[in-house]
Structures are given as C-alpha cells and as structure tokens.
Amino acid sequence: MNSICETRRREAAGFTFIELIVIVVIIGIAAMLSVPMFSSAADVQMRTAANMIASDLEYAKSMAVTHQAYYSVVFDPGTETYEVQTGGAVIKHPTNPTADFHINLAADNRTGQVDIVAVNFDGVASNAVTFDYLGGPHSGLPGTGMTPLNTGQVSLSAAGFSCTVTVEPVTGYVSIQ
Prior knowledge:
single chain, alpha+beta, seven-stranded antiparallel β-sheet
C-alpha cells in the first residue's frame, strides 16, 4: 500500500529536468528559424511591389495592343502610387471593375514598407510611360510631346533592399533587376 502512494506522488510531481531542457531546446530552434523570416519581410515586400509594377506595365502594354490605343502608366513617387490611364482617364481595375486602376503601395499591407525611390522614363517630368498600338514604349503622356523611350526605370527600396523595374526601348520588354 505504501508503494501505491509513492507512485501517485511521483506522477503528480510535474516535469523532469530532462523534459524541460528538451522543450527549451525546441523553442530555441524554432526561434532561430523564425528570425530570418522577420528580417527579410522588407525584401519580400519589395519583390512583391516589383512584381506588381512589372505585371501592371505588361497589362498596360497588352491593353494598348488589344484596343489599338495609347495606354499609360503614371507614377507619383511622392505618394508611392501609380495608375493606368487611357485617353487621360484612369481605367477600371481588371480584377475589380468598380474600382479605378490606382495602386497605392503605402496603403497595401503587402507593400507598405516599399518606397518608389526614382522614376526615370527619359527624364520626363511626368513620370509616365505610354505604350502604343504595337506595344512600343514612349516617355510622357499622349498630347504632351511623347518620344520613343530610350531608358525606362522604376527604382524601389525597402529597409536597405533595392530593386529596379526596367522597360526596354522599342520592344517594351519589362524586367526586374
């Protein structure tokens, strides 16, 4: 009878020292694995923004070819925004037909840390690239003295990481560097 009481007392005693050490080691390993994920959040946001901008530039180019009209992407680095226009008006967003195609990187939780550092489409102050009916890129907006694009870049940064979205002359090929 005495041995039954001792067994019950030992079961109610709690965790052994070895069990506590194993738990602490597991928590430590999990913490070490999660630290790199937190530190690269800015890099992930910057890559997300670069992919969004590149795909929206490609979308504007394809719309210009499809509709045989000028389509422009106009950037505003001061407000971290850009929009897609045709005929001087912002078009509707393809995935949300009730909303304008106006993207605000600062307001989007996927890209909130990203800054549009510089926009250079041949140095034109309008910060716009326009695609013609063949998909060829031009600097500026229709009716403002557009010229065929020689260099086109949108530079992004987020917490020390940087990236550039490039629009090639003649073909309008969009790449991320």
